Amino acid sequence: MTEPVDTVLFDLDDTLCRYRRSVGEVLSIAFEEAGVEPMFDERDYVANYDDYAEQAADIDELRRLCFADLASDRGLDPAAGHAVADAYTATRDQTAVEPLPGAVDAVDALADDHRLAIVTNGAPGMQRAKLSALPFADRFEHVVHAGYDTAAKPAPEPFHHVLDLLDADADRAVHVGNSLSSDVQGAHAAGLRSVWLGDGSTPEPTPTYAVDRLDELLVPPWR
C-alpha cells in the first residue's frame, strides 16, 4: 500500500519562479558592457553550470570559473570570460523574479496540510534573494542549497538532508521540479515520489506524476 504524502519538496528555478529577464538577455548585455564579442550563448552557460556548483563559494565565482573556461575552450584569453562574468553579475538583479503560473495558489493550498521545503541546485546568496522576493517565502520550513550544503542534485544526499531536517520520511514525501535529470531522477534515487512540471512530452525517466501547471496540485495527484 502506498503511504499517504505529508511532505512536499520543491525545486526553485523554473519550477516556483523565473527571472523577469532571461539568461540570454542578460548575457547579451554583459558581452556589450564588457566590450567582448559574443563567444558563447545561453545554452553553453546553462549546460556547464552544474559542473562548477561544488567548486565555487558563490554564484559570482561560479560564473567567473565557467565563463573563463568557455573563453579558453574557444582559444581566447580567460580574462575575457572574467570580464563578461563581472558584467553579468552587475546586470543581473536576483530579486527580479516572478512566480510561475499557478505557483502561488499551489503553495498556499499545499501548506494547509503538508510540510513544505525547497531543494535547489543554486548558490545560497542568490537563491535566498530570489525566494525573499516571492510572496510565499514564509511557507517553506527549510531550504537546502544542493551543491553547497550537500552534493548537487540528482544525488540523493540533498533530499535525505532536508528530510532529516523535517524529521520526515521519504515514502511519505514527493518532490516537485522541472528537470527530469536533477529533480525526477534525484527524487527517485532518494526514495521519494516525483512530480514533473513538464511540457507535455514523453518524459524519461518517467515521473510518478506529471503536471503542466503548478495549480494542478490544488487537487494533489497522490490522493
From TrEMBL:
It comes from the Archaea. Coiled coil: none annotated. Its cofactor is Mg(2+). GO terms for molecular function: hydrolase activity. It is an enzyme of class 3 (hydrolase). Its EC number is 3.1.3.-. SUPFAM superfamilies: HAD-like (SSF56784). InterPro entries: HAD-like_hydrolase, HAD-like_sf, HAD-SF_hydro_IA, HAD_sf, PGP-like_dom2. Keywords: Hydrolase, Magnesium. One of its GO terms (biological process) is small molecule metabolic process. The keyword Magnesium applies. The keyword Magnesium applies. Belongs to the HAD-like hydrolase superfamily. This is HAD family hydrolase. It comes from Haloarchaeobius litoreus. The lineage of its organism: Archaea, Methanobacteriati, Methanobacteriota, Stenosarchaea group, Halobacteria.
